[in-house]
Design a protein that fits this description.
This protein is an alpha/beta fold. Helix content is 41%, strand content 16%. The protein folds into 2 domains: 88 residues, 3-Layer(aba) Sandwich (Rossmann fold); 127 residues, Rossmann fold, CATH 3.40.50. The strands form 3 sheets. Strands 1-11-8-7-5-6 form a 6-stranded parallel beta sheet. A 3-stranded parallel beta sheet has the order 3-2-4, with helices on both faces. A hairpin with a 5-residue loop joins strand 9 and strand 10. Helix 1 runs parallel beside helix 10. It is globular. The model has no long low-confidence stretch (mean pLDDT 97). The structure holds 5,10-Methenyltetrahydrofolate and magnesium ion (MG). Keywords: Amino-acid biosynthesis, Histidine biosynthesis, Hydrolase, Methionine biosynthesis, Multifunctional enzyme, NADP, One-carbon metabolism, Oxidoreductase, Purine biosynthesis.
């Protein structure tokens, strides 16, 4: 039996970052505008620190300005809200990302709603959530958008395909379902209370795995030839005490059944960061009322 095509998110995201870098270069040359991204990290969670460092590096690489704000873990909510109010007003900042999760004294929803929707490059503000749902000019959450770019690249037109999204989070599952509806897929959203999950997944031409449980989706749940997008990023321990990243899909099984699959790492993860840069560029252009190249 032939094995699934491995969808290379590292390669695709590198190409997207190149196209973004060209646009940033053009903005700087012709308009003297440099897109700026502010990332706010509260606390010292090691995984979050790694993500923020990677985002900073990629932001600078494409020629944008990166402003990283690191606050102590016991920062009061009102201090974070004051910082956000300043970033909302700062004309050098076109995009704002507050790294999640936040410490428990801080109400994440309140923080998200304090960000100017025009600078909300995560696409989590209710204005952007609403615009995505009702067809307006939204900033779209990065992980679902990156997943969609990989799907379109691999499958072309998605219309009429059966898509099953496993997971109903605000950051992946729900916006992913909205995007797939927009692509004219027939969309099912499954979750922890879904009955007969393997049977639901077996109907899918497209499976989006966004549950946060390592290897939960098994090879024999898949329709042969389907396309699998694995959004999971789970760190698991090896027998020798080291650790490795695995997705929500049992990759070694799935690769024997699926037509195509994203690996972890090297699949959706790098697309998330590339789409964050894309959103920052889009937000910057809209704030300056500049039209962007459609190929982005
Ligand atoms: N407000 C907010 N927005 C986010 O977008 C956000 C967040 N909070 N909190 C944490 C999660 C996680 N996240 C990832 C981004 C890139 C990789 C990534 O590039 N992963 C690489 C490997 C990374 C590694 O080796 O550790 C890969 O999958 O190949 C992973 C995870 C963004 N997040
Ligand atoms: Mg869920």
């Amino acid at each position: 039996m032939t094995e699934a095509t491995i969808i290379d998110g590292n390669r695709f995201s590198a190409g997207l970052r190149d196209r973004i870098a060209s646009e940033v270069h053009a903005l700087r040359e012709t308009r003297h505008i440099t897109p700026g991204l502010a990332v706010v990290l509260v606390g010292e969670d090691p995984a979050s620190q790694v993500y923020v460092r990677t985002k900073h590096k990629r932001t600078v690489e494409v020629g944008m300005e990166s402003f990283v704000h690191t606050l102590p873990v016991d920062t009061p909510e009102d201090e974070l809200l004051t910082l956000i109010a300043g970033l909302n007003k700062d004309p050098a900042v076109h995009g704002i990302l507050v790294q999640l999760p936040l410490p428990r004294q801080i109400d994440a929803q309140k923080v998200i709603e304090a960000i100017d929707p025009a600078k909300d490059v995560d696409g989590f503000h209710p204005v952007n959530v609403g615009r995505l749902a009702s067809g307006g000019e939204a900033l779209i959450p990065c992980t679902p958008f990156g997943s969609l770019l990989l799907l379109r690249d691999h499958l072309g037109d998605l219309s009429g395909l059966d898509a099953v999204v496993v997971g109903r989070s605000n950051i992946v599952g729900k916006p992913m379902a909205q995007l797939l509806i927009r692509e004219s897929c027939t969309v099912t959203v499954a979750h922890s209370r879904t009955r007969d999950l393997p049977d639901v997944v077996r109907r899918a031409d497209i499976v989006i795995a966004a549950v946060g449980k390592p290897g939960m989706i098994r090879g024999d749940w898949l329709k042969p030839g389907c396309t699998v997008i694995d959004v999971g990023i789970n760190r698991v321990a090896n027998p020798d005490g080291t650790s490795r990243l695995v997705g929500d899909v049992a990759f070694d099984e799935a690769v024997k059944v699926a037509g195509a699959i994203t690996p972890v790492p090297g699949g959706v993860g790098p697309m998330t960061i590339a789409c964050l840069l894309r959103n920052t560029l889009v937000a910057c252009a809209r704030q300056h009322r500049i039209a962007l190249d459609k190929s982005l």
